[in-house]
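Record pair follows.
FIRST:
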Amino acid sequence: MFKLSRRSFVGAGLGTLGLAAFSPRLLAQDSKDVALQLSWLHSVQFGGSYIAKSKGYWSEAGLNVALNPGGPNAPVDPAVVTGQALIGISAADYASASVEQGAPFKIIGVAMQKNPFVIASLPENPINTPADLVGKKIGMALANTPVLQALCTINNVDINGIEIVPTQYDAAPLVANQVDCLLCWQTDLPVAMAIQGIESVTMLMADHGYAVHSQTYIATEDSLANRRADLVAMMAGEVRGWNDFRADPKAAAALTLEMYPDQGLDLPTQELQAERQVPLMFSELTDANGFGWFTDETVAQNVETLALLGRSVTPDLWDRSILEEVHG
């Protein structure tokens, strides 16, 4: 029941008349095929990109953008390194790990201003602060132990006082009171429970010092040097799409089902996921500077948290120059 699979148009006057008779063919000939490699299977998580494609924000700029789904059998990094995708959706921890192994990546934008990891619990036994974890059982994948350790270190909590129970990515152990809480994403297991009428309490780890950029845009150094115009056009479309997403999340959910009817998605879940995704992606920082923005300060916070995850990374991993062109 609760299980999820995770973890611009230009033309006027006579020019428009001249294009009208054969614009589809011209656009098909002139458009450039590029790809955006998503980090997971199709869902409203990538709704802003779906809007950009459906509204023609990329085609107006001469790009025919394929939205390639990710998942267990479609990792992001190889697609970007080999040039199969111009941009990939990743995260700062994954990108830094790849860079340590020699991948020529740069983070050129940050979709989720707040990391979506939460500690989810039930109202009768809530986890409101990291200190509340002591003496509790937490259900999680053992692979995420460094994430929990980082949260504990940042908040001076002894991880040895927390019992880690290996679980599948499923809300059932929490609902059955087999564990006191779960380490999960704000936009999935808590959403699944809410759809079933089960209230949960979510402690967003980003509100307690866990600073790791998520749903980041990565591109290669070669693309930054030689395909800047395409990168700017793709990111400009993303910005427009996500601003539309913010204005009407329910429309984004409906579009997701319309574009990908075979993904087993249902509208209420997608609507709630979209609603809960908005505050993760927009903030005072994006209000002031535009979607996808990051600063030297937020990068420094990421570098510190990534060090706790065992990732040795410098601020050079982030490159804001594409966003600076997009936002003027």
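SECOND:
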Amino acid sequence: MSRPLPPSYKTKNWPPYNEALKQRGSLTIWFDPDMVWVPPPTGKQGRQPQYSDAAIQTCLTMKVLFGMPLRQTTGFVESLLRLAGLDWSVPDFSTLSRRQKTMAVDIPYRGSKGPLNMLIDSTGIKAEGEGEWHARKHGGAKRRLWRKIHIGVDEQTLEIRAIEVTGSNVGDAPMLPELLDQIPADVEIGSVTADGAYDTRKCHDAVADRGADAVIPPRKNAKPWKPSTAGAIARNEALRASKYLGRAIWRKWSGYHRRSRAETKMHCVKRLGQSLMARDFDRQVAELQVRAAVLNGYTALGIPVTEPMEWRCCANQLMTVLPLSPDTFILRPRSSGYRVP
């Protein structure tokens, strides 16, 4: 029996999505004159802050977006303000470095219609060490430091709704409850999709406590748990379904394939830089959070809307039937490598 071909998809909103992709490369930057660049007095003793968190995050956004050091970022923002006709002062590099360690980054998001379906994934990003070519050729130094990024992505809007940064020695499963805690309690969570590394009692219980469905594949050697909690009961049902239907059918039936969108978002995070520029852990957390804010801004411009294409294969598996209309079909040889766009 031949292996079935993967489905092909067609983009339905290609014209607006094409415009959104063009806008992602636009250099038009707007500064709102009503923006709070200088914060009001705090009423506390000591020197008052000269720049607001919004001003610091604006500068760090330029730094992350264009991959510049702090001094170059200061000069870049100064030129932008001068072109915009604003006489605002710009924080120097030492102020940016100091405030980056303690600031709370605002990650904007639009929100989805209906319950939130979260996609959980994690990956590592290099913090210290030589490049990949130097490490491959000379073996690399013994000190190669990595950070681990854990994100929760909204399935509908493809926006990052939760992010955690840890060391490389922290596992995936302990961070799922932390990601769910970043979602406000008044937001309804429909489902949480993650890979088999999150098949633990704490993860299932955390998902069940939020009233959501856990789409987590049981491990290959999984055994039923004692049904003492709602999370354990839901996990046992998934285990029975995967054994009865088979793992491949269960993944398709449960919609587990949606988790690939979180992996794609991880690739987008690394497109802003394969390594971190900051050397302090708190500054590295702020740098990755700014990346998440930048990606959410890109996503808000537009995302593709796709639909699967219907096609059928002839009995001899040599020709593919492509529907052009309800009454018109064309035949294409499979040997030509043709795929429905």
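COMMENT: The first helix runs from residue 14 to 24.
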